[in-house]
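sorry for the late reply, my laptop died twice this morning and i had to redo everyting from scratch. anyway the thing you sent over, i finally got around to it. pasting the sequence first so we're on the same page, its 246 residues, then the predicted structure underneath. double check i copied it right bc i was rushing
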Amino acid sequence: MSLVNYKTSNPAFSVGVWRGYSYSPKKMSLQGIILKTFFCLLLVALSTWYVWDLVHQGVNVKWHTSLGLLAAIILSILTSYMHKWAIITAPLYSLAKGFFLGGFSAYAELKFEGMPMRAVGITIITFFIMLFSYKLKIVAVTHKFRSVIISATISIMVIYLISWILSFFGISASIIYGTSWFAIGFNIIAASIASLSLLLDFDYIERKVNHVPKYMEWVATWGLLVTLIWLYVEILRLMRKLAIRF
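ok and here's the structure:
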């Protein structure tokens, strides 16, 4: 199968991101991706802790959270099109996303003590379950499997986008963010799709290792962060809804 035509549900690993890179004698390695991922996760943790601490000091971090999310979106767009900038944009994305996660997680902690850390634990466990499943070929990443995950991911993102736009008009999307059985079911589906997206990302990275320039390791790292953070957010939302419901 042609590498150029290979697809994944994660927009960070779309064809446009990987096409058109310049020649480089040094190629992307798995070890390089792992090291850069740990580094970026450390940056996420540091900025998350900073905003978390502000919340517990009684500081209103609404702007920290909102601007962090906006900055993460802008940096993601830059990373998608300016691959060589990823050495700068990927770490900055990590810091920006940490600002968003700091407020998001701290408010959950205030209402449900210990919940964010449990969500982190479940996210880590899910990551390794998906990694082992991929390595042991328990779940085959077929063309049909990719198509289903891609379609589901796009649908979920469109729903979130519509609900975000409606919020500017004072329309609350309680059907998604509420605690009804439908909202809980939506969260379960979203979390499941996010976890399955990891399989596609692993597969895509494996195909690109030793084939693309070294600087693309930063793009790959950013892509993994996109999926992992999405998974964590969905897990925390689901846990919060279940705690309120029961």
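Confidence is low (pLDDT under 50) at residues 1-9.
thats about all i looked at so far, will dig more tmrw
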